[in-house]
Design brief:
Aminopeptidase; seven-stranded mixed β-sheet; globular; alpha+beta
């Protein structure tokens, strides 16, 4: 088998591989398989939003798989241009307004790319693929900043947090609860273009 590689995904390629992508999502997040069925319509709708872009990690079985974007899907990431009518924007704006005031919230949420999902299959984690995937997704992104939300973890002690900190993401909002989810989340962000930072 050839070495894994990262590549951009067009909307039609994402639709073709949506089942695989969602399988990685539920495995990486530890969710039951039924969550994938509920998320499928939302992921498909996201691919229609302005500024949508996606990237994948693939493990080709043969040389020709590389050119054709075939092979085993090992990782997926996507996002799109943030806008005031979107649910995530409204939720984060509410939290930031309470913490810092509405003017500050609007400044943070101006001209951003929402990194909606980034997941590596558990069997392929710890190989630097998440970092490569993040770089592929955000390379050439025209927004002035990128924002994301990730579950709070004691001591920030997991691979996702280490990746985001290594890539220069800083706190925007901590211990925030989105409507309908009891977990605490952190909202992180950084300016674009993306550059590697060292701890």
């Amino acid at each position: 088998m050839q070495q894994p590689y990262v590549a951009d995904l067009a909307p039609e390629q994402m639709r073709d591989r949506l089942h695989e992508a969602l399988s990685i999502y539920v495995r990486a997040m530890g969710y039951p398989a039924s969550v994938a069925r509920r998320r499928a319509p939302m992921w498909a709708e996201h691919a229609l939003r302005p500024g949508w872009r996606a990237a994948a990690v693939l493990a080709p079985a043969a040389e020709e798989d590389h050119a054709a974007l075939r092979g085993t899907l090992l990782g997926i990431a996507y996002g799109y241009t943030g806008a005031s009518h979107q649910w995530w924007y409204e939720q984060v704006h509410r939290g930031l307004s309470r913490a810092r005031g509405s003017t500050a919230a609007e400044q943070v949420l101006e001209d951003y790319f929402e990194l909606t999902e980034l997941h590596i299959h558990p069997s392929a984690q710890g190989q630097g693929l998440g970092d490569a995937l993040l770089g592929q997704l955000l390379g050439g992104c025209p927004a002035s900043r990128v924002l994301l939300s990730t579950p709070e973890v004691v001591g920030e002690a997991n691979r996702a947090w280490r990746l985001y900190r290594r890539r220069g993401f800083e706190d925007v909002l901590r211990d925030f609860r989105f409507d309908g989810d009891p977990r605490a989340f952190a909202v992180l962000g950084r300016a674009l273009p993306l550059t590697m930072t060292t701890a």
